[in-house]
Design brief:
Layout: H1 29-32, H2 35-40, H3 46-53, H4 59-71, H5 81-84, H6 98-104, H7 106-111, E1 139-141, E2 144-145, E3 151-155, H8 189-202, E4 208-212, H9 221-232, E5 239-243, H10 246-249, H11 251-254, H12 257-272, E6 276-281, H13 291-302, E7 307-314, H14 322-335, E8 339-345, H15 359-369, E9 380-385, E10 389-392, E11 398-400, E12 405-408, E13 428-431, H16 439-462, H17 472-478
Helix pairs in contact: 9-12, 14-15, 16-17
The structure holds iron/sulfur cluster.
Length: about 475
């Protein structure tokens, strides 16, 4: 055999034994496989985590977590048992190596971040922001982002069955944390969903609707089914994608009788109308793909929907190697029939620098995974460029690697730049983490941050409404 950088071996999926955790020692299989039991036993705070893992975890870990929640976390804690059980799958908490393995665990690193994970030099990029993709600015009606000519994103609710530390929609999704207050929808849910359907009826140029949130698994099933049925009745809609990380985080929900029967009805209507319904999930690590996840995915395919696809996020310490990515893609593809589709660069939200990869790293990863997976299942690495949209990482127009600034172009307008004659000639910027830059680049940023802050202070002191870079506001809030 020729020696290869990556060696493929089919790995059998396995459900880790939840009874290894003292808090779940008596939990039966029937309880474990109940969505209701899973929701009722989600871990929401340090006390509950201690109750599950028991007293043998080093105290240092719990204080590290508490400090993160008080000073850095942009998402509150919400971890379904299904997800917690995939952390350190081969060890019990009384194993002396458990705490160290928990610190290193890829799922723990993004679902239960601790203070010592984060950068202390640049916890946030100076231009990070809460709604870093400016989705709310592009709301055609509240919660309906119209960014691309033929596609919309419907944020039907602001909650999920699980909260990921790196959530792009940290502005809107989840409960407030000591660091971040959340934006609240102003309209009542029924009015909002009704207005979305009315907008789509009035805009036949839109053919593709991503139904998201949050996570659609938190909308009561009858309401979700009614909303998707309304979409199916809009003549111009041809693609519907249901966004749910819960297919992995809470597969028990997608395996429930009510949901399976409802999806069958929706899939039948979609087929009659030549519409594609797909589920888009969000899996970042191979160990998250367990037999229950595979069963849920295959149950959804059996209802007659078009596909189940994965949109992961590239995260340092989670999946930032070709092996981690390929192991994940093969686990998805081989046994769960989930199509690897995208891996996004982590967006420029506050306190995310320790997770973010530079554009150059993502380009390298894209090259390193080529040729192992079937072409149709080779995921694309994406940069979601503010005010532009998704771009493949090699589509960058220009890349200043000293300052970590990449420049991107666009070929369509959003409502935000409808009147901007130069929008299609302009270059839009995206920023690499500063700590990755050469010293000269880091020095440039330090000088820029200091100069911008000084200027902003002078303007404030003078009470003037001067033309200061609005992004400077982020400097005070997030880079301390
Ligand atoms: S499931 Fe998606 S929307 Fe919900 S917290 Fe995670 S990344 Fe955010």
């Amino acid at each position: 055999m020729v020696e290869q950088p990556y060696v493929y071996r089919h790995a059998e999926l396995a459900e880790p034994d939840w009874r290894r955790f003292p808090g779940w020692a008596g939990v039966t299989t029937a309880e474990w496989e109940s969505a209701q039991w899973q929701r009722a036993h989600c871990v929401k705070n340090v006390r509950q985590l201690r109750g599950v893992l028991g007293p043998q975890i080093a105290e240092e870990f719990y204080s590290d977590l508490e400090r993160d929640q008080a000073e850095r976390a942009t998402m509150s804690m919400l971890v379904p048992p299904q997800m917690l059980n995939t952390m350190v799958p081969a060890l019990a908490p009384d194993d002396p190596a458990f705490t160290e393995a928990l610190y290193a665990d890829p799922v723990r690193r993004y679902m239960i971040p601790v203070f010592s994970d984060r950068r202390t030099d640049w916890p946030s990029h100076p231009y990070s922001s809460r709604d870093s993709l400016h989705e709310a600015e592009m709301w055609a009606v509240e919660g309906l982002t119209h960014r691309y000519p033929t596609k919309v994103l419907a944020e039907v609710l602001p909650t999920c069955p699980q909260y990921c530390g790196h959530c792009t929609r940290m502005d809107l999704v989840g409960n407030p944390t000591p660091v971040v207050d959340k934006v609240k929808f102003g309209m009542a849910r029924e009015d909002r969903l009704g207005a979305m359907i009315s907008y789509l009826r009035a805009n036949p140029g839109v053919r593709d609707v991503v139904v998201s949130g949050g996570d659609v698994a938190n909308l009561p099933w009858p309401r979700l089914e009614a909303f998707v049925s309304d979409l199916l009745a809009v003549e111009s809609v041809r693609d519907i994608r249901l966004a749910t990380k819960a297919l992995m985080g809470l597969p028990q929900y997608w395996l429930s009788d009510e949901v399976r029967a409802g999806m069958e009805r929706l899939a039948a209507t979609a087929r009659d109308r030549d519409v594609s319904i797909a589920i888009h999930t969000h899996v970042n690590a191979a160990q998250s793909v367990t037999p229950l996840v595979a069963k849920a995915s295959k149950a959804m395919l059996a209802t007659g929907i078009r596909d189940v696809r994965n949109q992961g996020v590239l995260l340092r310490g989670v999946n930032d190697t070709p092996k981690a990515l390929l192991d994940l893609c093969f686990a998805l593809l081989d046994d769960a029939m989930i199509m690897p589709y995208y891996f996004y660069l982590c967006d420029m939200i506050p306190n995310s620098e320790h997770w973010r990869l530079g554009l150059g790293e993502a380009q390298q990863l894209q090259l390193q995974i080529m040729g192992y997976l079937p072409g149709f299942a080779t995921p694309r690495m994406l940069c979601d460029v503010p005010y532009v949209g998704k771009r493949w990482v090699h589509q960058v127009a220009r890349y200043d690697t000293e300052r970590g600034i990449s420049y991107w172009t666009k070929n369509y307008r959003t409502a935000v730049d409808a009147d901007d004659a130069e929008a299609l000639n302009r270059q839009f910027e995206y920023y690499d983490p500063i700590y990755l830059l050469p010293e000269s680049g880091q020095q440039w940023w330090r000088a820029k941050v200091a100069a911008d802050a000084e200027r902003a202070e002078a303007v404030e002191a003078a009470g003037e409404d001067a033309d200061v870079d609005e992004r400077v506001g982020a400097l005070a809030g997030w880079s301390a």
